[in-house]
Amino acid sequence: MYVLNFYSPVFIDQLKRGRKTATIRLGDKSAKYRKGQVVLVTVGFQHSPREKIFEAVIDQVDVKRVAELSPRDIEHDNPEFRRLDETIHFLEQIYGRSVARDDTVTIVRFSAVVERPTDIADRLRPEAPSQN
């Protein structure tokens, strides 16, 4: 199983609340992450213990240039950001190098896997109306 790891504990709350539903990674990661793949979402630093947040399904993988990032891409990655320059600055901090507008990035969109969503559980109750 692949791991989708986040370094900043700031993201734990955003992930758990479903506010962060994508990640923007520098480079072409389309060979690593594929639509329909199940990944383990974790938070922690390399060579340190990591906290398991949830398992997720990869919904979409898009490769594009930094300049092509949409406001929606930016917001799904970090709900606190609205502008491209904020995302560029953040990527520079994470990767420890300058990021140009023509650099390649991969946007990985994901959905948490829950044990039994409430709406499904309600429909599976014996007293629930059946659909034919």
Description:
With 132 residues, this protein is α+β, with helices and mostly antiparallel strands. It is built from four helices and five strands; from the N terminus they run βαβββααβα. A five-stranded mixed beta sheet has the order 1-3-4-5-2. The longest helix has 12 residues, at 84-95. The model has no long low-confidence stretch (mean pLDDT 90).
Trace the largest sheet across and list its strands. 1-3-4-5-2
Mean pLDDT: 90
Strand content: 25-35%
What is the alpha-carbon Rg in Å?
17 Å
Determine the number of helices (DSSP H or I, runs of at least 4 residues): 4
First-last Cα distance: 38 Å
Features:
single chain; 30% strand; 5-stranded mixed β-sheet; 132 residues; alpha+beta; globular; 4 helices
Compact summary:
The protein has 132 residues and is of the alpha+beta class. The chain has 4 helices and 5 strands.
Helix and strand layout, with pairings?
Elements: E1 2-6, H1 10-16, E2 22-26, E3 38-43, E4 51-65, H2 71-77, H3 84-95, E5 104-112, H4 118-124
Parallel strand pairs: 1-3
Antiparallel strand pairs: 2-5, 3-4, 4-5
